[in-house]
Here is the input.
Amino acid sequence: MAETPKQATHEGTEAAGGHASGGLPQFDPQWWPGQIIWLLIIFVALYVVLSKALLPKVGKAIDERAGRIEGDIAEARRMKDEAEAQAQAAASEMAEARARSQKLAADAKAHAAAETAKRQAKEEAVLHEKLSAAETRIKAARDEAMGNVRSIAVETAQAITERLTGQAATAAQAQAAAAKLA
Amino acid sequence: MAIDPMHQFAIHEVVHIDPVNVPGLGLVNLSITNSVLWMGIAALVVCGFLLASARGAVVPGRLQSLGESLYGLVDNLTSSMIGHEGRKFLPFVFTLFSFILVMNLFGLIAIPGVGAPFTATSQLAVTLTLALVTFITVIVIGFIRNGFGFFKLFVPSGVPWPLLFLLVPIEFISFMVRPVTLSLRLFGNMLGGHVVLKIFASFVIGLGAFALTGGLASLGFVGSALSLGTVVALTALEFIVAFLQAFVFAALACVYINDVVNLHAH
Here is the structure.
């Protein structure tokens, strides 16, 4: 240590060669105090600059980015939920509309069917009435015809009897005979 | 032709400053040496790099993402080793890590017109100082947070008391040698790597010059080429070592800080 000032001034590459023969230059104590003191000064200065000024900036940028990404993701998720809700609402509206239209169609069909049935029934009733009227008429005509047949038979019987016997049978006799035959 | 592999570690003055009388130490040569110069440049590089990368853009550029991934690396280290209080110690660990990393990497580059920077971390004085700074910081943190409970660090819990007569001295010694191991690991790695590189590099030139003498000596070219390949491979390895040793130093600093921060968790 005592020779430090004197030797320091001559120190150079030539002197370094001398050190090598005597061991590692690292173990030469004359350079230790200067290196240690300067290192402490530099290290403390670097620590102060990094911890007070530079590292907080880097950390802030990273945190801000993380916050921003988180916020963006939350926003995107919210929008997605909203869109999903809207899609769901639209789907339910559509289903409702479909149900309504189906009901409407069913109603119309039922209405039409009822109308048709009613009309058919009415028509059938009219036809039935006409049929039964016709039947009545036919029956009447037949009865009348049948009635006429008896009087014709009675008259014919009177005529035959008169021809055969030459004696006219009274209408009452002829009628009695006809009734017996019938 | 003798190439001295230790010459690269020699310190010389760059700017002479008359010895200063430091109280308690006597006269100290505070001249700016090559070692001090490159320490300062390393610190400036760290600051410049962070200044360039701390622009705070939401979408980071290349430099910013490099700076942020470095920050994230140390942040992960402190928070995984120290826990939720790790952020408090991030500046200290980051300073150690980045400063050592840049000083290590300086040993592996050459600047055109300037030459090879001096590798300050190949100086035992430097690594020992860094280790002692870490060691003393750990002790100070330990006393601030635990008071005299700090001494519980040397008393393993859950041990039958007669064993403590054996274990406490062991714990104490293992604690006290921490700065030694911390400094020697970094110093040894840097020293060894640089010496090996220098020796192989001297083979390239030495064997090449020998081969130029002609005749059978021409075979020296083979050895020269092999040495060159080795230097290239070793340089790649040394880049890994440079990063790894800075990381190991920072990781061990975290381990030591964790010991005193979470003293009661043990």
Remarks:
- The first strand of chain B starts at residue 13 and ends at 15.
- Residues 220-261 of chain B form the longest helix (42 residues).
- Chain B has a mean pLDDT of 89.
